[in-house]
Structures are given as structure tokens and as C-alpha cells.
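anyone seen this seq b4? input:
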Amino acid sequence: MKILKFNAVWCPGCLVSRPVWNEVLKEFPDIKITEYDYDIDEEEVAKYNVGDKLPVVIMLDENDNEIKRLTGEKNKEEILGFIKER
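predicted toks r here
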């Protein structure tokens, strides 16, 4: 499973979510996360149709097809549920 995270330096929810994701990664070290900056990585933002409500987290399968998407700030339990539903 791959996870794409779209963040921005001006996004308060993105800053709050960072330590939560660090905790989650300790529990699921096999997950590969690629982070993109909303303002810099314009091609990926367009490719994945990322809106202007950040953060956006997209889960991809082994063929890079989108499985799920989270939008907005989420707590640890919501993120763990997102991952466990895969």
C-alpha cells in the first residue's frame, strides 16, 4: 500500500496532523508515504484532483489506483481506521 499526503506550509491542519502521522507510522512501518507540497507540486495536485481543503491523504493499491481518500484534519483513531480498512 502507498499513501500520498498533500500538505502546505500555510495549512494549520497539516501542521497538526504531522505528529499524528508520525505516531501512526510507528505502528505501520511498512507503509510507504510520499508527501507533496500543495503550492510546489502542481502536477501531482492536478493529477490526483486535490481540492483546496487540506490536508488530503490518498491511499493507492499496488497498481497505483486510488482506493480511499481522507480530506481535512483527522485524529489518530480516524487515520488508523482508514489504514485498517484497506
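Residues 12-27 form the longest helix (16 residues). The chain has one domain: 2-84. kinda curious what u guys think
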